[in-house]
Design a protein that fits this description.
alpha+beta; single chain; 37 strands; six-stranded mixed β-sheet; 26 helices; globular
């Protein structure tokens, strides 16, 4: 290459390195500024320093080992080489390498060290846990070693062993190449094929490799407790592993040591050739196949398989116990629940738990929140709302809550310029809440907080803010994906859109941020840094950036907590709450591990996926874990972005190790959790899903029953769409279940027997009065058959009376019926099923409105009602029970397709008129005659109004006739709210 070419290449390489280092430096600097904002610089420096040390140490060690062996191979080259064609050919390579051999070795070693260092820095978590490991106070059942060894020590030891193997293998290959090029190893010519020095060097490296293999066999013995071996499909060492593989690994470790010694002795001290070392290696290979492969296979086939359960029984018990302990299932309370198909009790309407059943589906009412609680089209509440509870007027109940945020995607084209997106539309406003069992205004939620107007006059909302936030502005939220620039040098200058003015919805109040959130970017240097980072010149040119400007970035709650606590797995469903007059986001953080001996390994993404995943609930990473604890409750202040980590599980050794690694004060002690904040803690959804899915098998603690698998359960599919394969999500309820002493805010879910649809058990997760997590299972007797969620939905909607009413709600295709969450609530000695029925107009952007409540008591096909609200439904069910005198018999009127016992003539005529109007409408639609369709629709409305009038006059019994609806859709709804309606 010419001198100009070399200079050009050098300049290009220099520019590449410069920009790479500049990009890395800017990222590191802006990260440091962000961590300074949240006062968590120990995390930044701790992670960065650990990565840097590992990069340098592992990279340098690998480079020195490889480079040292390459240089040693060169120093051991023969000074005289026999003449041969082979050597003549190699001479040209020697002439190129020899003058600059030091440079070649340095460059090659540096490249290898670079890749080794880059690999090592990704192991910073393993190193930190190794350095700060804790004792679990429990030992594994095989070696009696503390569980902490497997969690904190084993991963790093395994990695270091891999680094050793890599360095030795590269050294062997590199040294062999150098020896060959410089004549230490020859393929042609007279005399020995290898010089004494080359033989000693290479055989020593091979011996070291074999010694590392001996260490690997020792670690393999521990690894058997972490792999899937136990039948049927359980993890840990089984009979064959304990009685064949463990002794085999130990024998192979000793053989490896003997072989390593034999390689050195026979090749350098006794015979000084490679015959016996080769025989030794062959012996090791044969031993590995025979002792480590054939012998365990023979034991498995001839001893274990003929009597599989007898051999594996003890190890099945080990795996069950370890799995229940690793996933927090050990203290699960299992109670027998005698659910029978009884008549609805007459006191059903007065039951507090029945009254507290949630009607509003957080997945379906988001659009209703958005349309009812905004004046501007860019406000949004997300795809799914959240459920929390508040105490108002000494009454604690569920509320569906949502944060009113600005959705950048909904800004108009004119509003999407840089100034508007980053300096004007910077924040949302208010936490909007609605009671979970209360609607009004034709099916809209009844709003009690988060109003844009100070004096609210809405007919479907409270007159005053019942959940008042002193600082309602939301600068940090789930939809805050853009960076925001806030703050003004002139205190009188306000540019941020705050909320529409009360007198004129076309005008708006303006605001200037005065909090401590965001990074100060008043200096020219910082503006230049962020201009480069965001490739945006406006940081330097725009007047919107001033001396008092602050830059908010990484604004979503999950991202902020994940950055502050990179060792945590964050639950997929953060939720907002008003605490101390401020809106805060509450997030559940999990500590996890992959090396808990004998515990079942699961994939977090697979186990937590259900019907709601991806629609307002984040999907977890595809991490395989076999240990999990809800060890942290994190909060993010919606106004200033402050991140706080509260210790929730004060017994978790993994959290203790991480807290120690970052100085011991990263996590706030559990005793310092504010009482008002603790009132909003709820059992985390993703943890519950994992535990629920595991309990479908691991509720069985008897090894024989587990082995047979005839008592396993499964999570049912979504009741209204079982064909999709999406699992039914659990649901939050503020109720008192059987065998509970008080009403709790709990997460509940039904499970069915494997490959069947009837109900097997109900699982609930909650916090008791002391704030301790509690898992409870209400197990139904095997001798009873109670319908499961899919069956109940099918039975209720296929009831002749109900089906016709649902057809009416469709309004000839002009609107669609949507089913909300089907809730299964155990009451008395039966199960109350409640499923809200929403109607969504075919018009664009129409919000689903809650119109009816579909309810059943006992078996889904017996006592079914479709009413306007929860209160009426409970009364109707109680009336059915009263009419039968609680004898346990099913009244004829509730049988599918059967008419009621008493139906007045006027009601029968009204029902017939509705049937005729429906038939006329269908015929008009088929004919395509729009005029006839309009007349038919008008006739249907009149017929339905007449039916409703007759029914309201008291001429209808509790059960409805098969040919007419029990309650027709009403054109007008009273504006005042009612509980459940």
């Amino acid at each position: 290459m010419s001198r100009r070419g070399r200079v050009t290449v050098g300049v290009l390489v220099g520019v590449f390195i410069l920009f790479t280092l500049l990009g890395w430096g800017i990222d590191a600097y802006t990260d440091y500024l962000w961590f300074s904002e949240v006062d968590k610089t120990k995390v930044f420096s701790g992670v960065l320093l650990t990565k840097l040390v590992l990069f340098l140490v592992i990279g340098a060690a690998t480079a020195l080992v490889v480079g040292g062996n390459l240089y040693l191979a060169y120093r051991l080259r023969p000074l005289l080489r026999p003449h041969s064609a082979e050597q003549a050919t190699l001479e040209r390579y020697r002439s190129v390498l020899a003058p600059r051999l030091g440079i070649w070795i340095t460059v090659l070693s540096a490249v290898i060290g670079l890749f080794a260092g880059l690999s090592a820095q990704g192991r910073w978590k393993d190193w930190m846990l190794f350095r700060n490991g804790q004792s679990f106070g429990k030992v594994d059942p095989q070696f009696k070693v503390d569980i902490g060894f497997y969690i904190f020590d084993y991963p790093l030891l395994r990695y270091l062993l891999g680094v050793g193997f890599t360095a030795v293998v590269l050294s062997v290959l590199g040294s062999l190449a150098v020896h060959y090029i410089f004549g230490g190893v020859r393929l042609q010519g007279v005399g020995d094929r290898m010089t004494t020095a080359a033989r000693a060097h290479l055989t020593t490296l091979v011996a070291i490799f074999v010694l590392l293999k001996a260490v690997a066999y020792v670690l393999d013995r521990r690894a058997l407790l972490l792999e899937q071996h136990v039948s049927p499909g359980l993890y840990g060492a089984g009979y064959t592993d304990v009685n064949a593989l463990l002794p085999a690994k130990e024998i192979l470790a000793y053989i490896s040591i003997v072989v390593a010694i034999a390689i050195i002795v026979f090749s350098n001290a006794v015979m000084r050739n490679l015959v016996w070392p080769g025989v030794s290696l062959a012996l090791l290979a044969v031993s590995a196949v025979a002792i480590g492969g054939i012998y365990p296979l023979a034991v498995q086939n001839f001893q274990v398989k003929p009597s599989l359960f007898d051999k594996e029984q003890a190890y099945i018990s080990r795996s069950i116990a370890a799995t229940r302990d690793a996933f927090g299932l050990t203290d699960t309370a299992v109670e027998q629940y005698s659910a029978r198909d009884e008549d609805p009790p007459t006191n059903l309407p007065a039951d507090t738990s029945a009254q507290n059943v949630r009607l509003i589906d957080p997945q379906l009412v988001s659009q209703a929140f958005t349309q009812s609680q905004q004046f501007r089209g860019f406000y949004d509440f997300g795809e799914k709302l959240d459920v929390d509870r508040y105490t108002i007027d000494n009454k604690t109940q569920d509320y569906v809550v949502g944060a009113r945020e600005i959705n950048d995607e909904k800004l108009s084209a004119q509003q999407r310029n840089w100034i508007n997106r980053h300096t004007v539309y910077t924040h949302g406003y208010g936490l909007v809440a609605a009671p979970a069992n209360q609607v009004c205004g034709g099916g809209l939620p009844y709003f009690v907080s988060g109003f844009l107007a100070t004096d609210n006059k809405g007919s479907c909302s409270a007159t005053t803010d019942l959940i008042k936030a002193e600082q309602p502005r939301i600068y940090f939220g789930e939809q805050s994906t853009e960076y925001a620039i806030v703050g003004q040098s002139d205190p009188n200058k306000k540019v941020e859109f705050d909320r529409p003015q009360e007198q004129n919805t076309n005008a708006s109040d303006l605001y200037t941020y005065d909090g401590k959130g965001g990074v100060e970017i008043g200096s020219f240097f910082r503006r230049m840094v962020f201009a480069i980072k965001n490739t945006e010149s406006n940081f330097l040119l725009s007047d919107a950036v001033n001396d008092n400007s602050r830059l908010m970035y990484i604004r979503t709650p999950r991202e902020r907590v994940e950055k502050v606590a990179p060792f945590l797995t964050i639950d997929g469903d953060p939720y907002p709450a008003v605490v101390g007059g401020r809106i805060v986001w509450i997030l559940d953080g999990y500590t996890t591990a992959q090396t808990y001996p004998y515990a079942q390994k699961i994939n977090l993404a697979t186990e937590t996926r259900d019907e709601l995943t991806g629609t307002g609930s984040f999907a977890l990473a595809r991490d395989d874990v076999n240990y999990i604890r809800n060890s942290v409750k994190a909060t993010v202040d919606a106004y200033d972005g402050t991140v706080k980590l509260y210790q929730f599980d004060d017994q978790d050794p993994v959290l203790k190790a991480w807290n120690k690694a970052f100085g011991g004060d990263l996590v706030i002690p559990k005793a310092d959790i504010p009482a008002e904040l603790a009132e909003h803690f709820r059992y985390p959804a993703d943890l519950f899903k994992v535990q629920r899915n595991l309990l479908t098998k691991f509720h069985v603690t008897d090894p024989r029953t587990f082995f047979s698998g005839d008592d396993f359960w499964q999570v049912p599919n979504a009741p209204d769409a079982p064909q999709t394969g999406d699992k039914q999500p659990p649901f939050y309820l503020n109720v008192k279940l059987p065998d509970q002493d008080e009403t709790r805010f709990q997460l509940t879910s039904g499970v069915t027997p494997a490959n069947r649809e009837n109900m097997a058990a109900l699982i609930s997760g909650s916090y008791d009065a002391n704030g301790k997590p509690s898992l409870e299972v209400l197990e139904l007797p095997d001798d009873t058959v109670v319908s499961g969620p899919v069956q109940v939905h099918r039975l209720m909607t296929s009831n002749a009376s109900i089906a016709q009413q649902l057809t009416l709600l469709n309004r000839g295709g002009q609107q669609t019926v949507l089913y909300g969450n089907l809730i299964s609530l155990p009451l008395e000695n039966a199960i109350l099923y409640v499923e809200p029925v929403y109607v969504k107009s075919a018009q664009a952007n129409a919000a689903p409105l809650l119109q009816k409540v579909l309810m059943s008591y006992g078996d889904g096909g017996q006592y079914v009602v479709l009413e306007d609200d929860l209160t009426k439904g409970l009364k109707a069910l109680a009336a059915l029970g009263k009419s039968t005198g609680n004898t346990g018999t099913t009244p004829p009127s509730t049988q599918p397709g059967a008419p009621p016992a008493q139906v007045s003539g006027d009601l029968a005529q009204a029902a017939a008129a509705v049937d005729k109007a429906i038939e006329d409408l269908r015929n008009a639609q088929k004919s395509g005659n729009f005029a006839a369709q309009g007349e038919a629709l008008q006739a249907l409305d009149e017929a339905m109004s007449r039916f409703q009038a007759v029914q309201g006059a008291g001429n209808t019994p509790a059960a409805t006739p098969s040919g007419a609806p029990s309650v027709a859709p009403s054109a007008s709804v009273a504006p005042s709210p009612s509980v459940g309606g």
